[in-house]
Amino acid sequence: MAPVCPECGSKKTWFAGKRYVQDQTIQRYLCKICNYRFSESSKNTIQQIEGRQICVFDKKMKNLTSVETKQKHSQESYVKSELINFMLYMKKLGRRETTIKTYSRYVETLSKHANLRDPEAIKLAIATKFKNSNTKRCAAYSYDLYIKFKGGIWEKPDYKRVHTQVFIPTDEELKTAMNYGRKTMVAFCTLIYETGARLNEAERLEWTDIDKERKIITINASKNGKPRLIPVPKKLIELLHNLQKNGKLVFPKRGESTRQSNFYCKMKRLSDIHNNPRFRKIHFHTFRHCKALREYHKTQNMQQVKRILGHKSILTTQNYVELYEDLYANQERETITEIALNIQEAKKLKDRGFKYECGHFNDGGMLFWRYK
User: What domain range is 341 assigned to?
Assistant: First the structure.
């Protein structure tokens, strides 16, 4: 049977002499189609040639995959070391732990979509990989600090902060969310509900911060570093003291975002039980928003709300006043009136949030009012 030409695969081959090598005799062939001359040692079908080519190709692909894996591991090691150094840099600048975590998380996310050493690629990643203007703005600020850490220069993109409407549940929805779950979670939600503390402030509450006799809780870990004293009802004090004591913290440390995840699952279950999707929009900060509105409703005093919430700027507190006016603008509200017969009584009423309406001390007294 005539051999197949290894060059073109044709079976039309001629004998083309023999080759004598030492004690061996090798038959030579000539292809009629392509005139390719080959020997008997090369009598391999085109399928065998292709098979060898596939094997070689597979080997090359394995080598290529191995190289890509090594490069990937090398890149991951580089990013990891860069993030550690970046976090140390922010710590030296005196940035808060929450800021350090947030900025490093944004930089890590950017490293998955672009080369950190290429500012133009980073700009494109910020523009395409983040959904809204607020997250794009945070990513831009994070990389801006990173590029300063590396000693580089870039033109930071200008993303404006977009204010979204705060979700305010009804009192019934809020209290249902607060009282659902295990006693530790109920106590944690009640603490934020009564004090308006931020999540990290509530998590750092210590047993020594609770004044059982005066019914006052001290909030220490505020953003501006100023502690504040918040009067609370007796029920909350008892609720906290019924918890198991494990160390100096009232609420022991949990994994990052574990408490938020558990609360979200709780709201998801509530939503299914009551067939009310509004429960899914309630989160820990919602209790703080509602505390601000209740406090302003009671006192009509922005400075008091600012002190309770620990705001740096009165402009932040002003947002709650505007929200309060929007919520209750078209609702009829009951009022309470009081009469002050002297300066001392008038001062007490002002401290309780009453507003002067009319009258004088020598004409039956001064009339004050406030909303219920």
Answer: 335-371
